[in-house]
Amino acid sequence: MPVQIIVGAQWGDEGKGKIVDHLSDSVDIVARYQGGANAGHTVVIGDKQYVLHLIPSGIFHPHVKCVIGNGVVIDPIALIDEIKQLQQMNISIQGRLFISHNAHLIMPYHKLLDTIRERTSEKIGTTGRGIGPAYIDKFMRIGIKISDLLDRDTFVAKLKRNIEEKNQIIKKIYGDPELDVEKIVSEYEEFDKQIDEYITDTALYLNSEHKNGKRILAEGAQGALLDIDHGTYPFVTSSNPTSGGACTGLGLPPTAVTSILGVVKAYTTRVGNGPFPTELKEETGDRLRKIGGEFGATTGRPRRCGWFDAVSVRYSSMVNGITHIAVTKLDVLDGFDKVKICTGYKLNGKVLKTFPTDVRSLEKIVPIYETYDGWKSSTSHIRRYPDIPENARRYLDAIETLTGTKVQIISLGARRDQTILIG
Ligand code: GDP
Ligand code: IMO
Ligand code: MG
After folding, report:
1. What percent of the residues of the chain are helix, what percent strand, and what percent coil, each to the nearest 5?
2. Which listed CATH number (1.10.300.10, 3.40.50.300, 3.30.1330.60, 1.25.40.10) goes with 104-194?
3. Considering the entire predicted model, what is its pTM?
4. 18-40, pLDDT tens digit by residue?
5. Is 41 a catalytic residue?
């Protein structure tokens, strides 16, 4: 049965939450595979807006089971907060939420080290959620997993070892106050009580449900250009948002995957530092930010805005194996006289047709643009593809041709019904 992966194909915030919610109607399971509470996935239902950080965006469909996979790093405070918010909205999660016993925990020292590092070294512009330091510990093989909470002695021993080490760094190098083991133990014991019923071997669960014919949607966080391996390193996140990350982050084999949907905004945004070839630092950028409401769903930071970049999306399609794309926020361009798409990069006078991931090259890129006539009319009420203004269809055709992808979904507003499915 189908396993579809949803990936952000730019620098995150493409509208994955909205698209996952929309597609959840016709799946049985939605599973998050990487990242943590650095993600902010917005779902708008009627006049209400919900922002999810850890819980999959399928949660608003009562028939959907939601999995937080082994590749996710879990911040207990953020998770409990999110569970409480859902309960207050009368959204039942009992029997619907499955948390991997193999997922790693974000500890208070991870958040502290994240913010200290941002203060003292080259600033990445992280979300400050402790993501990088938690993945460092995972790959150092000293991380604390959800399953460690199930055995007090193991948990305390691991925590003590970690804190001794972290205190040396925090106090000696950064001069900040030391961390208290007992305080952390009691906080995490309380957390364990609250999530105990959801802890599952999710790789086993997903594989057996897949065999049972259930339809699975793997929800990525961030975007391909923020990927630790394929993104604009070092200005990236510390996980693999690209489609390969779905297999490692869930324990589903690559042979089970049937399609990969890339989500792209009709323009481009980026939060935090790092190269952004099509960034508009003048009033057009401000206009996109204002109309698109481009402020971070997690941190509230203003997002940097620019034109659609076909070179980076073509690259993203290559490393993800994208089979179709969803183009979101087309309505944001409704009022523009002219809209532009970057079709190539110029570097030191030479034209590049491929995306260089090294930052030094990217910072020197001069984008080559094609300009399209705007459509100058509102699209947010349109529900059928043929009703989309001709110039907007021409713009979508150009995105298809220039990125080598096929548009399957067009989003013309944040609400569920503002979506057109093609084919
Ligand atoms: P995600 O991280 O990829 O899930 O995206 P975010 O939720 O961080 O940011 C996308 C923002 O755009 C949210 O505020 C959504 O409600 C909003 N949004 C999604 N699709 C559309 C659309 O087609 N048009 C408009 N105007 N807003 C949209
Ligand atoms: P969603 O899932 C946009 C960015 C941060 C920073 C870099 C590293 O909502 O699309 P981190 O805290 O991960 O170590 O920060 O990655 N970043 C995101 N940008 N959307 C996100 O998630 C992001 N998650 C992290 O701004 O530049
Ligand atoms: Mg977001």
Report:
1. 40, 20, 40
2. 1.10.300.10
3. 0.97
4. 999 999 999 999 999 999 999 99
5. yes
